[in-house]
Every structure is written in C-alpha cells, then in structure tokens.
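Case study 2.
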Amino acid sequence: GAALGQQRVMVAASVDMSSSGGASGKIAKSAVEKYAKLLEFSEDQKSTAIALHDGYDAAYMQAMREFSAAMEEMRRASEESDDRGVFMERMPKARKDLATKTKDLEKGFMTDLKSLVTPEQEAKWGKVERQRRREVLLRPGSVSGEGVNLLETVEGMKLPEDVRAGLGEALDSYESDIDRALMAKQRVLDDQPEFETGRGLDIEAFQKQMAMSREAGILVREVNSQYQRRLEVLL
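Prediction:
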C-alpha cells in the first residue's frame, strides 16, 4: 500500500502541467515579439506590449514561488510526521491552484494585448491564437514527430525571399491543418479525469486516456509528415 501510494504521488507530481490541462506554460518575451510581428505593431504598440508582459511575467513568477512554497511545506510536513500521504492529500489542490492562477494570468495578458490592436490589425488576431497553441501544444510527447513545428523549421532555414514566397500557400495550409490537429489534442487533454484525494487510481480510465492522447499525437505527426513531403517537393 505504501509503495502504491508513493507511485501515485510520483505520477501526480511528475505530469507536465503545461501540456496536460494544468498550469499554462509561461508566455516568453520572445513570443510577445512574434505576436507583435504577426500583428504588424508599431514601435509604440510593441513597447506597450512588452511593458504588459513585464507585469504578466512578475505575476507568473509570484504564482510559481507560491507553488514552490506549498511544495516545501508538504515536504516539511511529510518529514515531521513521517507520512508520505501528505503529498497525496495536498498536491492536487496545489496543482489546481497553480493551474487556475497561470491560466487566468494568460487570459488577462492576451485580453490586454488584444486591446492594443487597431481595427485593421484585428483581422490578424487569429494568427496570434494559432501561434500560442503551437507554443503550448507542439512539444515532444509519446509519439515521435508530434513536437515538430514546420513553420519554425522553414524560418530557421533562412531561405531567399523568392524561395520562401514559393512556399507561402503550403505553409498557410499547414498552419490551418496543424491547428485543427492541435485543437483536437487540447480537447483530449481537457477531458483528463482529475486526481481526487482518497480515491484510488482508475487504471482502466488512465489507460484509455493514454490511448486517446497517443491517437491525438499520431494525428499531429501525420500532418507534419504530410507537409514535410510537400515542402520537400517544393524546395
């Protein structure tokens, strides 16, 4: 029983919250610069966006410090009582609090950022939303190739402008198709059952969720494979 309890703690503590419907991955300053480029911000708009990000970043780091403090308190309480069950009891709430705080911070920042756009720039906002989904969801997982971002791959190739222009239609299609696959992946992550203190791990539900996550990853990989071949032919 003790061994099983420790395994559950390890599972609960080691899940990557940024890709599991938990804490949202922090928006990097470099990401904000990409958003500004996608929206064709003026220098004044970009400066304001960076200032907004500074406030967001400070609040995000405070949320992480509070989570770290909660983890330290769990460790201390566990050592004093010699009871590993402290983690089982307190970890779910600590993770849920962190997830709620970081998601609210992201939502607030993106709302503030959108308030800076002009009517002409608003039509480009969808590109920012798709960029953010790629940042959060295009990452290595259980399926080899599901973390590839072909838009970044092509950008990193530093192609001549005329060659890059010849890939435009294919890259636009890729952006749309990979986004649909990522939204499907997000729905699977959002449907994950929450761990509840005092309840055993439902192995059948866990295995079903893992299978669905793998299927979502395979779909992302298939989109990447399809467009990799298409881009190779064009190049």
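The chain is about 75% helix and 0% strand.
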